[in-house]
Amino acid sequence: MNIYTRTGDQGLTALKGGRVAKDHIRVHTYGELDELNAFTAVAHAACDDERLQGLREQLLQIQHELFDCGSDLAFADESQGKAVFKVMPEMVTNLEKWIDQHEADNAPLTRFILPGGHPAAAALHVCRTVCRRAERSIVTLSHQESIHQEVLKYVNRLSDYFFTAARRVNGLTMVEDVEYARSAHVFRTGVKKGQHE
């Protein structure tokens, strides 16, 4: 199998069920999930402390599931009705379980925090922002073509996972979250929740 095929030399690429320009919104969108997967690999590599082994295992599973998300978005619009999708509702439910577990152990939030802390936490915050960008692209795609809605749900929940996991890394490694210096006490009762919907 050759790495190069020359089939994309004219600026086209293959979807499941058709060929489109490489700057097509669908290609752009699953490309952003590929980028997120690569950043997740960086976060996985940064969790090299034995206290973070559980997070390493979660991140590896997420990498497989991100590949599933990209695969589900790679069907041409006219092939969506015949597609056999990989992203299932239980994958979203599992993310919610992990989020709840991390939040149960995280200190309550009272102010907005800055990305940072332990290198793995910083990497997870990068994942969170790239995930939000990918989510925006998925929403844009959904306005123009058909998509598998479970992918959108999964990616929406995943950004919350990255936020809570970043805070969990700091907690496990005894590194303080960095509070935004000019933040008011936005979470007045110390609510244990993320910064995003």
Outline the structure in words.
InterPro entries: CblAdoTrfase-like (IPR016030), CblAdoTrfase-like_sf (IPR036451), PduO-typ (IPR029499). Pathway: Cofactor biosynthesis; adenosylcobalamin biosynthesis; adenosylcobalamin from cob(II)yrinate a,c-diamide: step 2/7. It is an enzyme of class 2 (transferase). One of its GO terms (molecular function) is corrinoid adenosyltransferase activity. It is a single chain. With 197 residues, this protein is mainly α. Helices cover 56% and strands 6% of the residues. The chain has helices spanning 25-46, 53-73, 89-105, 119-144, 149-172, and strands at residues 12-15, 18-21, 113-114, 178-179. The chain has a two-stranded antiparallel ribbon with strand order 1-2. Strands 3-4 form a two-stranded antiparallel sheet. It is elongated, with a radius of gyration of 18 Å. The termini are far apart.
SSE inventory with pairings:
Elements: E1 12-15, E2 18-21, H1 25-46, H2 53-73, H3 89-105, E3 113-114, H4 119-144, H5 149-172, E4 178-179
Antiparallel strand pairs: 1-2, 3-4
Helix pairs in contact: 1-2, 1-4, 2-5, 3-5, 4-5
GO molecular function, one term: corrinoid adenosyltransferase activity
Pathway: Cofactor biosynthesis; adenosylcobalamin biosynthesis; adenosylcobalamin from cob(II)yrinate a,c-diamide: step 2/7
Enzyme class: transferase
In short:
By secondary structure, this protein is mainly alpha-helical. The chain has helices at about 25-45, 55-75, 90-105, 120-145, 150-170; strands at about 10-15, 20, 115, 180.
